Amino acid sequence: MALMAFAATMPIVAQNSGTNTPYSQYGYGTLPDQTGGYNRGMNGVGIGLRKHNQLNVTNPASYSALDSLTFIFDAGFSGTFTSFQENGKRKNSKGASFDYFLGGFRAFKHVGMSFGMLPFSKVGYNFSVTNKVEESSSDNTTTYTNLYSGSGGLRQVFLGIGWEPFKGFSIGVNGGYLWGSSTKLVNNYYSKKDIVTLGATYGLGHSLNADSKCTIYSSNSQTNVSDTASFTVKEAYKLPTMIGAGLAWNHDNRLRIGVDYTFQKWTEVGYPEYKVIDDVPYYELNNDYFKDRHKFNVGMEYCRNENARKFAPRIRYKLGASYTTPYYYVNGVEGPKEISVSAGVSIPIVNNWNNRSLLNISAQWVRTDAKNLLREDVFRISVGLTFNERWFMKWKVN
């Protein structure tokens, strides 16, 4: 027999192996029965059995009894539902996998053959252990978490032959080739129950290197005379300097509250404007068109347990509000300020192939209002998909 091993640098979802048990971290993993559909209903019994119309790979001598007129093919899937219980706590898990395929036929008189693929071992687990760090100081909120994960297992392909040299006596042999991988990881990290983060951003103001062109068309219906005048302002458009600061509080990796402030210095930016003064037209930058803009945001997110096995604790609930001052004038009067509130949920997408993507649904109400000017009330619904999948796994072959 030969063994080929593959080691992945990143963990694979444990359920891919069809098992999810912490006991599979020991040895080669769990050792399932290497049987087909004929034996599984009898809990693997088959060493002493031989039938003309069934494949019994537990004893290759039984292949000699195969019917000469048939070809047998057998394939199997399995689904698992596991309940874990420890210290009065109970957890449930489920998984599915393709297990085996088998084929068999009569080769010659009193000689039968079989081939196929069977599992040899299965590794699949994912759990964490969190404890407080023993410190001499009074601050005992620091914790460490060990994340244990494993996946893979060994499979074997085989070719078998059974021979009946004389009636009442048969011998046989299975020859196989094993391959697979067994990846076992332990990730350790330390964290405090309450974490405060301070962030800052800076955007450099700069020219967009774009000209602005204004064309005036005029006509006199009585004289049937028309005239066209064009004006150009070089490098008319710029972006202002932008500064932002934010403060966020993370409690137990469940509740996150953040406050942001953003300042945009629009007073350093001009805007091209057409004017007529004493019957003389002008098209030039107006440096009093803009005013500095201030924006305040506050928001929160709550998720009971983003790594939970059950669906409901992984849903993320969000609330937010903001206040924004105007950054331009309308006929010499300050433009509209903006007030908004929002709420939303991020729903996890959980299946056998992906458990990291999110469906985001949110609703927002925005009021835009200025004194003696138009007031707007907007209700907006947004739906988005955050696709998160492990595309860039690297494989190492030994």
Which shape, going by the Cα principal axes? elongated
Give the strand order of the largest sheet, numbering strands 1, 2, ... along the chain.
7-12-13-16-17-20-21-22
Tally the beta strands.
23
| Alpha-beta content class | mainly beta
What is the share of helical residues? under 10%
Number of helices: 1
Instruction: Give the low-pLDDT segments.
Output: 1-16
Strand content: over 45%
Distance between the termini: 17 Å
* Run of helices and strands: EHEEEEEEEEEEEEEEEEEEEEEE
SSE map:
Blueprint: E1 3-8, H1 37-40, E2 71-86, E3 89-108, E4 111-132, E5 142-166, E6 169-192, E7 194-203, E8 206-207, E9 212-220, E10 225-233, E11 238-239, E12 241-251, E13 255-265, E14 271-277, E15 280-286, E16 293-302, E17 316-324, E18 329-330, E19 333-334, E20 337-349, E21 357-369, E22 376-386, E23 395-397
Parallel strand pairs: 1-6
Antiparallel strand pairs: 1-23, 2-3, 3-4, 4-5, 5-6, 7-12, 8-11, 9-10, 12-13, 13-16, 14-15, 16-17, 17-20, 18-19, 20-21, 21-22
